[in-house]
Amino acid sequence: MITRTLLRAFDGKTSLVVAILITIAIAVPASNLYLPVGHPLRVPNHFVPLLGKYLTYAMLALALDLVWGYCGILSLGHGAFFALGGYAMGMYLMRQIGDRGVYANPILPDFMVFLNYQELPWFWYGFDMFWFAAIMVVLVPGLLAFVFGWFAFRSRVTGVYLSIITQAMTYALLLAFFRNDMGFGGNNGLTDFKDILGAPLQAGSTRAALFAASAIALALSFIVCSAIVRSKLGKVLVAVRDAESRTRFLGYRVDNYKLFAFTASAVIAGIAGALYVPQVGIINPGEFAPANSIEIVIWTAVGGRGTLVGPIVGAVLVNAGKSWFTGVFPEFWLFALGGLFVAVTLFLPKGIVGALAQGWTALKARRVSARAEDGSDAAPEPSPAE
Amino acid sequence: MRGRWPAGQKGARKSENIPSAVDTKTMHPTCLIRTLLVALALLFTTSSAFAQDVEALVNALPEGGYSDREKVIFDLAATGDERVAGLLDALGEGDLYVREEDGRVVAGKRAGRDYALTDALTGEELGTAPSSALEKIRVNNRLRRAVRSAIGQLTLMSPSPPVRLRAARSLLRNADPDSLELLGTALAAETDPQVKKMMETARAAIIIKTDAGIEEKAAAIDLLAARGDREALAMLTGAHSSAAPELQPVIERGIAGIERKLAMWDGLQNVWYGLSLGSVLLLAAIGLAITFGVMGVINMAHGEIVMLGAYTTFAVQQVIRTSFPGLFDYSLAIALPLAFLVTALVGIAIERGIIRWLYGRPLETLLATWGLSLFLQQTVRTIFGPNNREVGNPSWMSGAFDLAGLSITWNRLWIIVFALVVFAVLLAVLNRTPLGLQMRAVTQNRRMASSMGIRTPWVDAMTFGLGSGIAGMAGVALSQIDNVSPNLGQSYIIDSFMVVVFGGVGNLWGTLVGALTLGVANKFLEPYAGAVLAKIFILVFIILFIQRRPRGLFALKGRAVDA
Q1: Judged by CB atoms within 8 Å, which residues 286-345 of A form the interface with B?
Q2: Residue B13 lies in a domain
């Protein structure tokens, strides 16, 4: 049944996006690995992890769009799920270092030796195995989102209040992870990773593989999200977004629908975080900062919430802009980002993709009426709640 | 918020009030009598005639062996001459030399390759000399001890009460049994009740260490227990193990008494710190209570408006420092209305330019104002630089005073007062003025208010301006206790939202109660959990609290709320 739901997700547009992503997943690593250095089409070495980072950000924005664009829950704490997934992966990478650390302790990571830990804290057990870490990447953010959402949605915390308590959640986690006593490396976080699944992280082939993994993970999340959105459940989510009370009065258990969307979204965010960490090489409490979570919201808003392609476009565009800006005018990046926030909310409430889609349907409608033909009944994009 | 107490020069100023130099010119008649008494008493402790000329004694210093020198030191102390203290200090430090050309005793400090010389007694400048022209007056450990005790004598007999108080306090810390006799003499001559009490306590601390009688020791223990501070506690705990069995219960009772008293003062101190933190939270949140509570606008740039207020203070002080240094004590009084004006205008501009297009879309407002906050931060960073800016305390806000064991800093006290005044004024504006009436009308039913002839756009702009202006005034106050940097606002924004949401949106009283509760709770948790965990607990508590009461402590009731 699940396969049928997933298959139904493949209409023309989804197939196109997935095809593009898979092409990227193959083309970028191939051009980096097999084209000679200096070839005009070769992707430079440092670009591979950078592009991979954008893809994980895109996945994160996609996750946020699922709750914000389709369910009307503005989470200002999605960075927390991303970071938790990242920490789970970071812990695995830490354990992989083994006795190659500065202090050459075969069990304890360097920072624990430095902080005089005598033995491994219990929550670090099992992270020497990849499968365990992979489960944790999904489980920890998912569980946190489930518990948090269960409490919040059941007591009908909505709108701005929900946004503020999600922000409080990520802020509390930020403070907690900054503590050295927590056993997660304090403000230095986890870093100095050596290899993943036996492959050295610095090697070009590992980086290429991680890039391909990110692109494929993004494609898979896109399929899952589009399956969710197109299913009956997705329609109920949109109904919750547009008229929550009415949906409840029609007999739907609104809380459960919201909880599902929130948890699924957190899991996708966690996986994105897990792919992010090996490509950037560090995870620290700064990822929990409320400002980061708000930035995710702006990627989604720029691209267009309520469309699944939008957040991917937005995340890649904004982050590419950020890389370029911080390289060329580091002083002005915050001006640009601030201006972007204001401009998008004032002038582009549907984002780039939303505006393009609107223009496209308007154009098509005009052509249709001009030719007085029938046949094309393209459904307009669902518009987000005002 | 971060619990940063003014460090460095902000805190150091209070020490200027304590006179350090001893004023010899204004010798009071009682002082003369004291000097005589002291001199008489010292006749017994030191065997030499005290009337010897000070200069002669100084010149006798280099002669003879260490034991002769020790005698001279005590003779010098016996003169009671104020200048001797400095000389003895120099001797203890090994800075006294004999100039070989005339045998004069001088104090020398290294200055480059030579020594800068001053007269040992008068401090008169004597030029420089190479080390070959000087011979050091050597001291050993025994002499150093003698010097210390001699200085103790001198200061304990000083005509200035603060100097005597300090000497007694240092005796209390050292509790050197050799000083007992000297202390007794000083006590007999003491007239100042405060100094006398300190001396008695010091004497008690010494007696515990000596092999005095049980009765006497018990009295001393009671005296120490009555002092009731951590020092006394440490002394009693130290004495406990070695004390005679009869004394053990007395000491234990004393320790228990002190601990009880300390716990009570700790509690009071925590309440005070909590109120102080609460008032800071109140100041930061009260402007938000208007824009968020009354207007339903999520203003994420609120913290940055607070920051603008703090920078206004900085700019005002900069102008005063360069042009009108005499006005420095009034700088805050000048900065307050200016900060209100500047931030109110910025607020009105924000409302007219951005927020009015987004009414009814709270989540979009949140994003737009967040963008604005980044913009404002970067603007301030570009103009004033990324570093902390120095905002000084006017004299009436620096320093601290003791209120029965509580140390209360003036700036914290003024900020509490200021926060309450702002709260009261705001309450009056909302409830007693036409603007307040119109604001409430627009909040409750915009369309009806509009049909009654209220210009709702104007009221919106004014409300936002008022909220922002109050945030700016909060910035003036916060500049006194926190670092003024472009990040000032960010550290307050989350806490402000917590306060408003906890207290209940749309209710100023809720904000007051919320701010003070969170402040006091935070400070009571800190000793057990540490500052960071305390804050985490508070955040988790608020998250859980919102589940129970989604609309805060004092929720508005009625249909309009759900709209």
Answers
A1: 290-291, 294, 297-298, 301, 331-332, 334-335, 337-342, 344-345
A2: no
In chain B, % helix, strand, coil (3-state, to 5) comes to 70, 5, 25
Is B25 among the domain residues?
A: no
Does any CB of chain B come closer than 8 Å to the CB of residue A346? yes
Task: Kindly state the DSSP code that residue B355 receives in the 8-state scheme.
Answer: G
Q: Which of B234, B254, B276 is the last residue of a domain?
A: B234
Question: Is B153 a member of any domain?
Answer: yes
- Shared domain for B129 and B272, answered yes or no, is no
Q: What spatial distance separates the first Cα and last Cα of chain B, rounded to whole Å?
A: 34
B375–chain A Cβ distance below 8 A for any pair: yes
User: Do B338 and B432 sit in the same domain of this protein?
Assistant: yes
pLDDT band at B563 (very low <50, low <70, confident <90, very high): very low
CB–CB of B368/A342 below 8 Å? yes
Q: Do B377 and A334 touch (CB under 8 A)?
A: yes
Residues of chain A with C-beta less than 8 angstroms from the C-beta of B539 = 168-169, 171-172, 175
How many structural domains are present in chain B? 2
CATH of the domain at B343: 1.10.3470
Residue B374 lies in domain: 266-562
Read off the DSSP letter of residue B389: B
H or E stretch at B115 = strand B114-119
- CB–CB of B364/A349 below 8 Å? yes
Give the span between the Cα atoms of B48 and A126, in whole angstroms: 83
- What number of CA atoms fall less than 13 Å from residue B84's CA on the CB side? 29
Note the pTM of the prediction, 2 decimals. 0.74
Per-residue CA distances from B164 to A49, B151, B167, B194 (Å): 71, 11, 5, 10
- In this prediction the ipTM stands at 0.83
pLDDT band for A68, please (50, 70, 90 cuts).
very high
Structure tokens at B465: 């301006």
- Boundary residue ending a domain (B212, B234, B256): B234
- Do the domain assignments include residue B509? yes
